[in-house]
Design goal:
Elements lengths: L2 H44 L13 E11 L29 E10 L5 E10 L2 E4 L3 E4 L5 E7 L4 E2 L12 E8 L18 H4 L2 E10 L14
Antiparallel strand pairs: 1-9, 2-6, 2-9, 3-4, 3-5, 3-8, 4-7
């Protein structure tokens, strides 16, 4: 390299360094903009309001929740396993046996809408205790709610189940004349064509509230 070339190179080198630094600065700014945009997106995700359904109070207990079709194979009396925690002692530490049971039925579908009554029954040894049958028509979207004192539920021979001991539970379906729509025993579907009744797709929910308590509402259980 000649002296003149060396001198030119020395004069040019600072401009090259400044140019490189400027390019680096632009790159950093662009990266910062992308980072800020990503942070803004993340913040929008993080701080999007979330609706949370509060837990039900401690003085309430979900004791039954059938949600689905009742078929001919259920013989008109589906008897699912009791819900976990619902088949223990209803007298202590919380006194549900002297409280109130709240019930809700919602119809999803039925082959031919029927005037019917649905009730929950509990069985234990030779004892039987049942709620009042909620009257409803089998049209999609039909909903009814009602409540009863647990101590005043109907019981066979006026002897209620022992709420301190385990028991089985199920739904009994009745027609408008209070006949049991089942083929158990000699009921013979209460004279109806079971194909008009089943599958009956319903949600039947029951919550018991301790003595002196106030029901918090169905939003906790059927959102």
């Amino acid at each position: 390299m000649t002296p003149s070339n060396s001198h030119s190179a020395r004069r040019t080198r600072p401009f090259i360094i400044v140019f490189i630094l400027l390019l680096g600065g632009f790159a950093l700014l662009a990266g910062r903009d992308r980072t800020v945009a990503a942070d803004d997106t993340a913040n929008r995700r993080i701080y999007t309001p979330v609706i949370v359904v509060p837990s039900p109070p401690a003085d309430e207990l979900l004791v039954f929740d059938w949600n689905g079709p009742i078929t001919i194979d259920h013989h008109g009396i589906p008897a699912p396993e009791p819900l976990p925690g619902a088949n223990g002692d209803w007298t202590r530490p919380i006194n549900f046996a002297q409280g109130t049971i709240h019930l809700r039925i919602e119809v999803h579908s039925q082959p031919q809408p029927q005037n019917m009554g649905l009730q929950i029954c509990w069985w234990q040894d030779d004892r039987e205790t049942c709620t009042r049958a909620g009257k409803i028509v089998g049209r999609p979207g039909a909903v009814i709610t009602w409540s009863q004192d647990v101590a005043r539920l109907w019981s066979l021979n006026k002897t209620p189940v022992d709420w301190t001991r385990p028991r089985s539970n199920g739904i009994v379906i009745r027609d408008d004349d209070n006949g049991v729509v089942s083929d158990y025993g000699d009921w013979n579907w209460a004279g109806h064509d079971p194909a008009d009744w089943f599958p009956l797709d319903v949600r039947f929910t029951a919550v018991v509230v301790e003595a002196g308590g106030t029901f918090s509402g169905w939003d906790h259980y059927t959102p």
